[in-house]
Specification:
heterodimer; A: 110 residues; mainly alpha; 6 helices; 78% helix; B: 185 residues; two-stranded antiparallel ribbon; elongated
């Protein structure tokens, strides 16, 4: 039974969901970091843990966005075959945006 | 030979979880590339690479969680007025124009970019555990997993570099002193 299951070809939907969600999580991290750096009210809102300060809220919120995006996309694409090319490119762009937004000299330009 | 409690935690975070993760990256990239490359050879058992990636995922999460919730509060603690700054790394770095960049560029980049590591490697591990050798049949998905694994290496490398350099300039120290061994004069 298990070897039969292992040999069944899987659709690319679950993999695409995981890849795109990781990109969304990366961008969410960058966006929250920039917002906490530029908006005092948002910075205050992001203090989930006083000793750690706004970093606690920025990272926790980004992780929540990532996991929610993953859950929703997994639910939508679980049994589907999707156009993985555009999905992967979107994920790479989102990852690059996340990386750039965490770089302080770039974030300071915004 | 002694070490402070804060120094020990910094060692566990950086040399334990962080450095071990960076060392593991090369093995993960090579094995992911090799085991999932399109070939007519029969598929190999993927169990060990799955365990390897899961271990890396645990290391990545352990590194960011200890960094953010154990060491960073010591780093950013505000010193009481009139106290020497040696035990307050952020305040020490910001007190001098020649060291402030270690905080404004180094720590502010490190504290955020490090979190891309567990996100990327968790995704890579989850996809590999789900697909195993079948990633051969999905070349673009395979490429995406490899690129995100590279990204996890880059983000961990940036965080590790800045962490090591900042700890040289303004070490996180203090707390209970642990005597490891008694040396001879």
């Amino acid at each position: 039974m298990s070897s039969q299951t292992e040999n069944l070809p899987l659709t690319n939907g679950p993999g695409a969901a995981a890849v795109l969600a990781a990109g969304i999580g990366a961008t969410a991290l960058g966006v929250f970091a920039v917002l906490a750096d530029t908006l005092p009210a948002f910075k205050k809102l992001m203090i989930f843990s006083s000793p750690t300060g706004p970093l606690s809220g920025v990272t926790t919120s980004a992780i929540i966005v990532w996991l929610l995006a993953w859950a929703v996309l997994e639910w939508r694409w679980k049994q589907k075959t999707v156009a993985i090319g555009p999905v992967a490119i979107a994920a790479f762009v989102l990852l690059a945006v996340g990386l750039l937004l965490t770089f302080p000299p770039f974030a300071d330009l915004l | 030979m002694e070490i402070t409690m804060r120094g020990l935690w910094t060692l566990i975070h950086g040399m334990g979880f962080g450095a071990l993760y960076l060392l593991a990256c090369a093995g993960a990239l090579v094995e992911l590339w090799r085991m999932t490359r399109p070939t007519t050879e029969p598929p190999e058992p993927s169990r060990w690479l799955g365990i390897y990636l899961l271990t890396m995922t645990v290391l990545a999460w352990a590194a960011v969680l200890t960094g953010t919730y154990v060491i960073y509060p010591w780093y950013r603690a505000v010193p009481p007025a009139g106290v020497a700054l040696a035990d307050f790394p952020q305040a020490l770095l910001r007190s001098n124009a020649s060291t402030v960049g270690w905080h404004t560029l180094g720590m502010e980049w490190k504290e955020h970019v490090a979190w891309l590591t567990p996100v990327s490697i968790t995704m890579a591990a989850a996809v590999f555990l789900r697909y195993g050798w079948q990633l051969r049949l999905h070349p673009e998905l395979r490429r995406a997993v490899l690129i995100f694994t590279c990204a996890s290496f880059v983000s961990a490398g940036i965080a590790g570099f800045w962490g090591a350099m900042i700890n040289k300039v303004a070490p996180t120290q203090g707390g209970q002193t642990i005597r490891i061994m008694q040396g001879e004069k």
